[in-house]
Amino acid sequence: MNGNPFHPATSGYPRDLRGYGRDRPDPAWPGGAALAVQFVLNYEEGGEHSVLHGDAHAESFLAEHFTGPPRAGRHASIEGIFEYGSRVGFWRLWDLFTARAVPVTVFGVTMALARHPEAVAAMREADWEIASHGLRWIDHSTLAEADERRYLTDTMALHRTVCGAGPEGWYLGRASPNSLRLLTELTQPLYLSDFYNDELPYWRVIGEAPQLVLPYTLDANDMRFLTAPGFGNGEDFARYLIDSFDVLLAEGLRGSPGLMSIGLHPRITGRPGRLAGLARFLDHVAKHPQVWLARRDQVARHWRARFPYRAP
C-alpha cells in the first residue's frame, strides 16, 4: 500500500469504487443467454404531489412541460398529464408488451395502484411483477425517521391489500438516508434497486443484514424525454436503446454476459410518438435469440441461487 492513506483496505472509506472490476462474474443466465434484458414500468399516476393528496403544492417533477417552482393549489395541466398515463398510456404499453409476451416489472406507487384496480388486474393477468415504488411518489428525505417507518409499514400493508401479496422488490426513487436500513428492519426484501452504480446485481450489507442490489438505470430511461439534455423523439430513444443493447450483447458473446435495464412511465412512453421508438427497440431485440427477457424478481432469484451471499 506504500503509505497510501486512501487505499480501500485501510482508509475506511464507505463507498465502493472498485465493484467487480476486471473480474466480472459469469451470471450463467438461463439458456446460456449472452444478455438479460429487463423492462420496468413506473406506475405513479394518482400518487404524485397534489393538494388532493394532502400536499401543499402540485407535482413539479417529470411533467410534460416546464412547470417552474411548485405551485400551491391544484394544477389542472399537471393533473391531466398524469391522468393520461393511467387512462391511455398504461393500456398502450400493456397492449405492446402482452402482444409480444414480454415480461415486465412494475415499480408501483401503492396509492396509485389502489386508485386503479383495473390496471392492477391487468398486471396480474399478464404475470407482471409488482414491486414497490413507495406509498407516494415523493421525496423521502423530507420524512423524519419515525414517520418514514410508519410510512413504509403502511406501504407494505396497502400493497398486500391491493395486489394480493406484499412486494418482494423495492425502488423508492428518492430515498432518504434511512430508507434502505428501515426496509431491512421491516421486511426481508428479495432485492433493492435504489442504486445506479453497476449493471450486474451484487450483495451489500445494509445495517447488519446482507441485501441483494439490482441496480436501476437513469440513462436507458424515458424520463430523459422530459429532462435536458434528453431524447427529442422516439427515434432518439430507439437509437440509444439499440446502441446500448448492441454493446452489451457483443460483450456477452465475448464471454461477459450482462444485464440491461430499461425504465418507462405510462405518461411518457405511452404517448404514440414515443411508443414507436420502444416498438422499434423490441423489434431489434426479437432478432437476437441469445437474450433472456426477465422480470427483476426472476433475475434476483437466479442471482441468489448462483451467487449466495458470502461474508468477506
Automatic annotation (TrEMBL):
Pfam families: Polysacc_deac_1. SUPFAM superfamilies: Glycoside hydrolase/deacetylase. Residues 1-24 are annotated as: Disordered. PROSITE patterns: NODB (PS51677). InterPro entries: Glyco_hydro/deAcase_b/a-brl, NODB_dom. One of its GO terms (biological process) is carbohydrate metabolic process. Residues 15-24 have a biased composition (Basic and acidic residues). Is involved in generating a small heat-stable compound (Nod), an acylated oligomer of N-acetylglucosamine, that stimulates mitosis in various plant protoplasts. Belongs to the polysaccharide deacetylase family. This is Chitooligosaccharide deacetylase.
